[in-house]
Amino acid sequence: MPDEKKPAFAGNITADDVAAEAGVSRWTVNRAFRKDASISSKSLEKVRIAAERLGYVPDLRAASLASDRSNLVALLIDDFANPHKLVMMERLTRILRREGWDILLVNTLDRADAGHALLNASQRRVDAVILIGIQFDDDVLDTALHARRFRKLIIFARTSRNPNTISIAVDDVHAMREIANYVHERGYRRPMFLAGPRTSSAHLLRKETFVDYWRQHFGSEPETVAVSAYDPELAAKVVETTLSARKKASLPDILVCENDALAIGATDVIRHKLGLRIPEDIAITGFDDVPQAEGANYRLTTYRQPLTDMAEYLVEVLDSREDRDFDRLFRGKLTVRESA
Hints:
Number of helices: 12
Mean pLDDT: 85
Shape: elongated
Number of strands: 12
CATH architecture of the largest domain: 3-Layer(aba) Sandwich
CATH class of the largest domain: Alpha Beta
CATH topology of the largest domain: Rossmann fold
Low-confidence stretches: 1-10
Strand order of the largest sheet: 2-1-3-4-5-11
Helix content: 40-55%
Order of helices and strands: HHHHEHEHEHEEHEHEHEHEEHEE
CATH superfamily of the largest domain: Response regulator
Number of domains: 3
Distance between the termini: 73 Å
């Protein structure tokens, strides 16, 4: 019985070995591992089979040095108490990897760390930096833009006033007007808006849109209260402090929450600390449609962000070599459940 050919240690296998195994040129092997290269499906399959048999892994660092692109993006993220961050991270990383982009993931701890992380990313030859969080104010962005070595600084799921960034976000203005109209149509007349932290650059437009729209169209001023972070436990404490001393007649008839993290915390305290019913005593709406929102404990009326469409567009932005305005707002969908 003839000896079967066994692959050598992968680190010793070269593109020449793969070319010989596949019966193609070394040039074809190199093209097979480049994202943008033109290669026939037949040749690509030959190279794939040969590379798998031999255990060949291309040297991506060497390939990137020979090119003006690394196909590496830095993803800077914070605020992990907010469950929607995990949903966004899963969706983004899955779609980016599918499209040939590698990810450097950085958990930014606070504002000072955010600036350091941005500068550090600029030294690692990434093609773009994607920011998902609340720590990135104008000073931090300006510092990163001044020192950057990456092509694009992308704010994901928030809008930015900084002209040198790219914003890919849901259309908060359209969404909050839709929520305000729904709330009014359902007969609620005493809304309280539960807002998250305010930031000076990359931020949401939900609180100001809801309050202004309600005032202009329905003739009253909604109450507002703010939480310092998108944390369900903090939201629960703020709601308990705000509502616990009130008589039933002076309570809001609905809490409109800036996102689902706040709505989840509010739901828990309203039911289990204040002893009130949802939606009979106080209704609740959220924003994001995290997985917990449809669970039996919450059944939360909320607004679903089109994360897949937003992530697919992000890949288009990364792939493009054009110099133009890439900012884009997306429209999501109001998802009605029993909480309101």
